[in-house]
Amino acid sequence: MTTTTGQRSTDTVHRELCHALFDALERGDVDAVARCYAPEMTLWANITGHEQTRDENLASIEKGKELLRRRTYDDRQIHTFDDGFVAQYTVTAVTHDGTRRALWACLVAEVHDGLITKLFDYLDSSKFGVPDR
Amino acid sequence: MKRDSQTLELCDTFFDSIERCDYEALERCYAREAMIWHSHDNLFQSREDNLAMLKQGMATQQKVRYKDRRIRTFEGGFVQQHTIYVTRENGFVGKMDVCFVAYTRNGKISRAYEYFDTGQIAEFLGPPPDGDR
Amino acid sequence: MTTTELRTMTDGEIRELCNRFFDAYQDKRVDILDEVLADDCIIWHNVFGRETTKADNLSKYHDSYDGQRRRTYDDRTINTFDDGFVIQYSLNGVMTNGHRGSLWICIVARVRDGRITRIDEYMDSSKFAAWAGAPTAATSGGQR
How large is the ipTM? Predict the structure, then answer.
């Protein structure tokens, strides 16, 4: 292979980081999620309008694991830029009674040195209570 | 996350349902927001317009076959290369090589792009009916 | 890593290969095209309905620029699978007479060991005249 294996492009690094985050969230692997985050990472969610710190976010992920049977991050359309990525995706939640809800979501991330420094999460909370047909 | 078998099944069902004139099965393959782009006019066609067009094809009893299907799935979609054969009313069998790229959302087709060569349209439509000039 | 080690290319490697191919096409780097295309690479064009070889394509490369000042391969939407990629893109050209044309194209490609082994290209030949800025029935001899 003539391309160098040492230097990966920013596009590759950011894409892999996005997949690593989503895969870790799917597995409920909070440590793996933490490894995607810079120490100063913050997450702003449109549904609350508030910003969570890294620790607050990791704690809420840990707490959220028990609420659902399963959560998957599908249909991932990822576009990268020099300092981050945007992912449009479907998050499907399956509750303990088997009810399935799919939500359309968008995540914008700022990335520095291969770690996420900021996340902006966009969901439509009016769809939370609407199960799939 | 990639769900290859589900995506393959969606792709197969979509084209099989057109071959079998199974409108209900076809309709279930499209997400509510589905838009379909065609290379002959470079425009997006709405779900309703596209379904109406396919329904009309089924109603005229045109025999449609998708041969030499080569499918590849990717994160959030699939691409199928095939040759479409349509048996016209006068017995002419039209053919066209097509590349169909589809982006999925929650197990259904959300956006599709159909590439073909309208420069070869005569091979697909066949000769015009006698006296039609 | 040597070319004798067979392993699946990663998503990142395939994307980089894809972009390297199109950048080379854009920048008239036949030397890079020679590197990224496997020696036994086959290129199938829907507009011709037949397969051509790497040697055929590279030998005709410069001719393909006839009448064009420059070309860019833009709006690249790339999706990868284990053994290749699909790319949708717009080919934008500036002709020597200043005319600007666009073609929307889709390519499905197979890759192996860092090189492209097969290209299936889908274009619409009915758009070629407008791309080149040649007079068509609609634009010539009509009202202005």
Answer: 0.84
Q: Does domain A10-127 have CATH number 3.10.450.50?
A: yes
Coil vs helix vs strand at C110: strand
- Of the candidates A1, A2, A16, the beta carbon closest to that of C12 is on A16
Q: Do the domain assignments include residue C29?
A: yes
Set of chain B residues whose Cβ sits within 8 Å of the Cβ of A87 = none
pTM for the model stands at 0.86
- Strand, coil or helix: A116: strand
CB contact under 8 A, A92 and B76: no
**Whole domain around residue C15: which residue ranges?**
11-132
Strands (E), B19-133: 30-38, 43-46, 63-74, 77-87, 93-105, 108-115
User: Is C23 within 8 Å of chain A by CB?
Assistant: no
Please state the domain extents for chain A: 10-127
Cβ(A54)–Cβ(A36) under 8 Å?
no
Which residues of B fall within a CB distance of 8 Å from A77? 76, 103
- The pLDDT profile of chain A, 133 residues, written as one tens digit per residue, is 334 445 788 999 999 999 999 999 999 999 999 999 999 999 999 888 899 999 999 999 999 988 999 999 999 999 998 999 999 999 999 999 999 999 989 999 999 999 999 999 988 888 777 666 4
Which two structure tokens, joined as six digits, stand for C105?
Answer: 């194209």
Q: Cα–Cα–Cα angle for A99, A101, A104, nearest 5°?
A: 175
- The structural domains of chain B, ordered by start, are 4-120 (3.10.450.50)
State the CATH number of the domain containing residue C109: 3.10.450.50
Residue C138 forms part of a structural domain: no
